[in-house]
Amino acid sequence: MKHTDIRDIFYDSSFVGKTVTVCGWVRTSRDSKNVSFLEINDGTALKHLQVVIDKEKITGYENAMKLGCSVKVNGTICENPNNGVEINASEILVLGESPTDYPLQKKRHTLEFLRTMPHLRVRTNTFNAVFRVRSVLASAIHNYFQSRGYVYVNTPIITGSDAEGAGEVFRVTTQGFDHGCKTEEEYYANDFFGKKAGLSVSGQLEGEVAAMAFGKIYTFGPSFRAENSNTPRHLAEFWHIEPEVAFAELPDIIEIAEDMIKNIIGVVLEKCPDEIAFFEKHFEPGLSDKLKSIISHEFGIVEYTEAIEILKQSGRQFNYPCDWGCDLQTEHERYITEEVFKKPVFVINYPKDIKAFYMKQNPDGKTVAATDLLVPGVGEIIGCSEREADYGKLTEAMKARNMKFDDYSDYLDLRKFGSVPHSGFGLGFERILMYITGMANIRDITLYPRTVGSVR
Ligand code: 4AD
Ligand code: MG
Fold it and tell me: Is the pTM higher than 0.90?
């Protein structure tokens, strides 16, 4: 269907005076004595295009006045003092009608209400803005790595190993509940893969395999977590960016993470000014200055041990106690980043007992070369570490966790054959989107959010 994107009409003044065809969905309609007005949106721009209908010239357009219907309009582009440009219709064709039970009749609905209709909420300004930024951000991430020589790899989604060694894996099975197996072993032996399989919580372990050959790699794909965390920051299915870099120690990977975050925020500021202005107006006052400030200031960095001291001396009553050795809860993370540093901050060198088996053990025997990047308003957006490259130390950490060596034979081989210092991190795509847009709930960043008790 030949037509012009509304975006082009807004950004190219040479359209004024020309006759064009535009398509879109009707967002508002209004009737006066001699003229009627529609505002239509085709998804290419945040702003709606006003359609002016001269009642003497056009008849039979009543169905086009109903919100949510789709139309094709022929007409001439004219300047309009309030709205930039508008189109004077010469012909209106309703492509798809929309009866009056179309749910989005009001101008503004609550985000909670909109969550009940993921298939329609995408037609609102908020979700138009969210998904345009999401798309630009994804492209910026690929560009960042591609232009620096990283190899993009696709790690398996179905996996036989539990990367993080934590029990939060979705099981993958083709056997029904009436399989008739007597034991767990028998059950898995009869299953599709002949062994226990699940959805990957992280592509890291396979990412390391690739990095040990290609030097610098990144993944960008879905990860799955069966955590029972019903919070505004957790999804059961989220998108994960995981670079892995050979010949890199913790300070090197921290530098890469900071540079990448600044770079991709810069791209969004440049390519999505209308969307950022929209989020600033409706969701987070001061958003644009916040983003500019992130780019122009160094991120903070604090030892875990020091962070615990800061928390203990804060005089704050936290819901969870915090002593050396405890995992930082969201309330702790937010205090550190929002009240103390007031900017993104890397917490480094965590106690080894609260972190994964693969992290490089520090000489103190108590901590590992790991870091989380915490940001105001969201908390953790990156989990990062240097990897243990020493065969003996790695197997020691695995023994201490009662892990089966057989399940990790490939991973162990990497330490046997040409092991090198290497590091990587995992960035939660939806988490950084929350930070960039100011949207407070991860369910509003995702087309179809999967969370505990909710799948559609
Ligand atoms: O900190 P995590 O668990 O680290 C890893 O998975 C490492 N293997 C990463 C690596 O070193 N390659 O997860 C990394 C990031 C978190 O910081 C968070 O941003 C995001 O993934 N994340 C989630 N996002 C949404 N919903 C969830 N349930 C998430 N779990 C983790
Ligand atoms: Mg983490």
Answer: yes
